[in-house]
Structure formats: structure tokens, C-alpha cells
Amino acid sequence: MENIFRYVRRHSTQLIGTEGEHIAAEYLRTIGYDIRGCNIKIGRDEIDILALDPVDQVLVFAEVKSRAKKSDDYRPDISMDRRKMRALRRAARLWVAKQDYEGGYRLDLICVVDGKITDHWKQLSWE
């Protein structure tokens, strides 16, 4: 019985994440970004959203963090830890190298809570 609960919890978490990625992509479209890809597997990592920012004219490698409910103790940005940042940097650098891309690019974090965008942090640290 415990395995069933673990499966249901993981499955519902994945659904929240997938819905959050769709909401984030639509949000980026509404502010003029050109979505170039979603859920791009690169090596052992994944890029949630790859988009072109028309204002800054850079590619954006966006990480999406989602929560079903608002909680000050469990904000989406909290889960963007060092390990996840390293993975996002690694994926972005690998994508750039494989594509021989020579333009500008940046890392963004988009937070979705209860089906709404709560934060869009541009230019995360490369350190």
C-alpha cells in the first residue's frame, strides 16, 4: 500500500511540474518570447524551456519551479539549489557547444504557484 501512495504522490508532483511548464511557456509567449523548445534532454540534464528574448536578443534557458499551493515555507525558488543550478549551467553550456551557437544567452528561473506566475528571475548566476 505504501508503494501506491509513493507512486500517486510522485505522479501528482510530475503533473504539477508539467502544468507549470505549460503555464510558464504561455507566459513567455505573451510577453513576446519565441519558444524554441521545451523539455530538451541534453546529456543527463534537461532544459525546461528554451526561448528567445526579443528585447535583449538572447537565448533564455529557463528553469521552471512549480507548487500547487502558496506557502511561505515552501516557495518554488527554494528548490533551485546549487545542484540544480549546476545542472542548468551544464545543460546550457552543452547545448551552446553542440549547436555552435555564438549569440548571447542567459539563465532564468520562472516560478509558478497555484497555476499563476509568481516570479520571473532573469540572469541567474553563472558561478
Topology of this protein?
Layout: H1 2-30, E1 34-42, E2 45-53, E3 58-67, H2 82-99, E4 105-113, E5 116-121
Keywords:
single chain; 127 residues; alpha+beta; 5-stranded mixed sheet; 5 strands
Explain the overall architecture.
The chain is of the alpha+beta class and 127 residues long. It has a 5-stranded mixed β-sheet with strand order 1-2-3-4-5, with helices on both faces. Helices cover 37% and strands 34% of the residues. Mean pLDDT is 87; it is low at 7-11. The protein is globular, with a radius of gyration of 15 Å. It has helices at residues 2-30, 82-99, and strands at residues 34-42, 45-53, 58-67, 105-113, 116-121.
